[in-house]
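# step 3/5: fold
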Amino acid sequence: MAVPQPGRSLAVASTRADYLAAELARTGWRVEGIAAVSTTETSSSSAIVADLDEWQSHWGLLSSLRSTMHVVLDGCSLSDVRMVTRLRTVPPPLPVGSTMAWEYRADNTIGRIRLPIDPGAGRAV
């Protein structure tokens, strides 16, 4: 299982983009939209967060970011993963209720990555 490396930004395709963007911002990440990829330099604490449709409308961008950023697929179904990555392999299982997501790696594989958010966020005490 991977964790985001220091000095490496996140590119996140999520079925819950608004929620995840808020959680990342709350934990100190600078959250930006897809437009930031071409207009600014991303810092090590930057997270480009968008929903699947928005990433699809920028076809190929997510794949091109794999060598410089952690590309995270959050809350995605198997068909979502296949749509975004064009891969037909089955990703490893994710524990239910965890802060785990899939990472689309530069070597064209899918692994697990722990999201840098508070696992207790949003839960009643």
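# step 4/5: annotate
The longest strand covers residues 46-51.
# step 5/5: archive (pending)
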